[in-house]
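Recall from the previous lesson that a structure prediction takes nothing but the amino acid sequence as input. Here we apply that procedure to Putative transcription regulator GNAT family from Rosa chinensis. The sequence below is the only information supplied.
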Amino acid sequence: MNMVQDLSLSSLVVREFDRNKDCSGVEDVERRCDVGPTGEVSLFTDLLGDPICRVRNSPAFLMLVAELGQEKEIVGMVRGCIKTVTCGKKHSRNSKNVTVSHRNNNDDDNIKPVPVYTKLAYILGLRVSPSHRRMGIGLKLVKRMEEWFAENGAEYSYMATENDNQASIKLFTGKCGYAKFRTPAILVNPVFAHRVKVSKLVTIIKLAPSDAESLYRRRFSTTEFFPRDIDSVLNNNLSLGTFLAVPRGELAEESWPGSDQFLADPPESWAVISVWNCNELFKLEVRGASRLKRTFAKTTRIVDRALPWLQLPSVPELFRPFGFHFLYGLGGAGPRAAKFLKALCGHAHNLAKGSGCGVVATEVSNREPLKAGIPHWKILSCAEDLWCIKRLGEDYSDGSVGDWTKSPPGMSIFVDPREI
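The prediction returns the following tokens.
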């Protein structure tokens, strides 16, 4: 058996994806890999004819394909991207405008945390044709991608997978040297046939990208995985806006003073959220649901449309291709921050309804203090996603953080919408 595998792999070629000739082969492998267990509900992904849609918005990206035999059949692929993110923080003393006589008294006031950045690579979309598995093709794809990461100066590589995907976990932790690192929660909420009522106790202000950038850099730049090029994210055409919730009567959009002034004297409680439009990237579809479940879902929508004032939690049409919005950059402060975040999620729901989305999704640390304010359905969500990480080289300076792979989790993480 091993001899047969070795002979087969001798004709294996791993090369860069060629859009002009590889699309049909890649789509064929994607379709075969998406086939779920018989009789079970499965989630299918339609990349809308653009196999690199999930990485093309990153600063640097690459897609590789595995080609086998004289027929040059595509039997696998993997995608990867590189960016610079926060991996920790250190304390910096700001001595500006502090006189010698006051330095000792004001030392604590002038020490602030600043981010420590690292160049991070991300592996996603690893696929191997079901008829060519257990031949080492996945391993070859990952190793070749890691070579590209190292050539471009990445210090760490990470990947995300379902907690119960034993084949993927075994490959990365058993053969590729990755370690289990973080277990964030994926929270998914359906988009109902009715609009969600947003609390009248809050005012929602849409921030300009420059104001949003200022707010994020000043308040969240030390959050783990925060992208240093946050301005590129916020100014991307897929970013539908950043929204701030404050107590009603304190601020208004027409009299917004700017993020700097806002943060200098913030209200007792506030929250912020940004929205990313995945409708333009790919569609999802739930398959394998029984006729009874389909009928029940359809009935809830019919009743909800007929009687919208009842605010019924109707099940959206998930059994045909649907798009979604992704919520990122969630944060806030104050005793009512979670309630304000809930209002922002309601506002995001209504935006998604207007765009014809099926669901609204986000991903947060399981330790996130504001997690309680994020509406979601447990049946659609994942309580523990799994992120695994690897240090690509030992010749990097440990700096003030040390080996990031060994660091304890923080309260929050920043999930980049470009990598969903």
